[in-house]
Design goal:
Layout lengths: L1 H4 L1 E3 L5 E3 L15 H9 L4 H18 L12 H28 L26 H29 L9 E2 L2 E2 L1 H30 L2 H12 L14 H7 L13 H18 L7 E3 L5 E3 L12 H9 L11 H4 L8 H27 L1
Antiparallel strand pairs: 1-2, 3-4, 5-6
Helix pairs in contact: 3-9, 4-5, 4-9, 5-9
The structure holds zinc ion (2 copies).
Length: 360
């Protein structure tokens, strides 16, 4: 737990971890193969993370979904069941974290980035209450759009409109398909999803789109698990749209479901507001909070800085496009200075443009 629980509060009282976020080890030079292998194959590595998510997806696909032939016709019954299943999935993940951290307050402010509880009397939120506002946007719009995408795919698959790839062919297991499906899952999906997130996130920071849609998510300066999927419907449409590539490219439905579920429940942990999730053992010792998906890991400090400063950290660490495209902030004073210098340069560029336009 040390790497997660070591840190201190800065001058504004915000929690800053001692170990600052670093781009994936494959971005470092020289390459440290031991670190790369641990990051991928280690007990808390990416492979185990993907396997857990895939297991959850398989349970949903095989046991908590309507039969394929049923979905050939759009009917309210099966669509409603999918919606309620998605609501239940998100409520289990976000609700559990919220219950422990914000209702039972098991950690109080320990390792919490912003030392404040969610707003309970603030007009910028629906009902004047940040948590209820976030729950509303997540369950109504978030799960609504997530379900709409899933319904589109299921209806298209059932009617043979969208191509699929199967594990089997007429003679049994299809080895080539199996390799392609696993390869896409492990090698293509993470990079593709992170690139999609980075570029669409920059797109919705474009002023008109920010004003219409993305500001809804950014009202949560002090975020919590329910803030993750709390977005404007337009942002939800963009956020879940990464799966649309498989309307044209043949792929096993499990992969599409994996992507949709990842988008649906993934942001809850990253936005939980605490750098580490811990519990106290009977002997008073601090232990990681148990959980199938989040074993003590805590929220995403890099994304917390995005909510705090707006103009940095549009993406993730795995495919560190922020580093490559100079929008990275790791929380260090040097990165902060660099961000301020970029802002100043941009402002003077705008001012010069304005003066030139006036003189014309
Ligand atoms: Zn966010
Ligand atoms: Zn943003």
């Amino acid at each position: 737990m040390d790497a997660l629980t070591e840190g201190a509060r800065d001058a504004q009282g915000e929690w800053v971890p001692k170990v600052l976020p670093e781009p994936g080890p494959w971005f470092r030079s020289p390459l440290e193969w031991k670190v790369i292998l641990t990051t991928i194959f280690g007990p808390r590595g990416r492979l185990i993370g993907s396997a857990k998510f895939l297991a959850l997806t398989a349970v949903v696909w095989y046991f908590l979904s309507p039969k394929m032939e049923q979905t050939a016709t759009l009917r309210i019954g099966w669509i409603l069941l999918i919606y309620l299943r998605n609501v239940a999935l998100l409520t289990i993940i976000a609700g559990r974290l919220h219950w422990r951290l914000y209702v039972r307050k098991v950690q109080d402010m320990k390792y919490k980035y912003t030392p404040k509880w969610p707003a309970t009397d603030d007009k910028k939120f629906l009902f004047g209450n940040q948590t209820w506002d976030n729950i509303f946007y997540s369950l109504v719009s978030g799960c609504g759009v997530w379900t709409a995408y899933e319904v589109l795919f299921r209806w298209g698959w059932a009617n043979d409109i969208f191509p699929t790839l199967s594990f089997t062919n007429g003679e049994g297991l299809d080895g080539l398909n199996l390799v392609v499906i696993i390869g896409v899952l492990l090698l293509v999906t993470p990079w593709y999803q992170q690139a999609h997130f980075y570029f669409t996130h920059r797109l919705i920071h474009w002023k008109p789109l920010y004003k219409i849609a993305h500001h809804v998510h950014h009202r949560n300066l002090n975020f919590g698990p329910w803030s993750g999927l709390s977005m404007h419907p337009i942002e939800h449409l963009i956020f879940f749209s990464d799966a649309l590539v498989f309307l044209l490219i043949p792929m096993h439905p499990l992969i599409v479901m994996f992507m949709l579920i990842g988008r649906g429940i993934g942001p809850a942990g990253g936005h939980a507001g605490y750098h580490a999730f811990v519990r106290e053992s009977r002997g008073g010792e601090e232990k990681p909070m148990p959980g199938l998906l989040y074993w003590g890991k805590g929220a995403d400090f890099m994304h917390h800085l995005h909510h705090r400063y707006f103009t940095v950290n549009f993406g993730n660490l795995g495919f560190a496009l922020d580093k490559v495209l100079h929008t990275f902030h790791d929380g260090s004073p040097e990165a902060h200075e660099a961000m301020l210098a970029r802002r100043k340069a941009k402002k003077s560029q705008r001012d010069t443009g304005r003066v030139a336009a006036t003189n014309e």
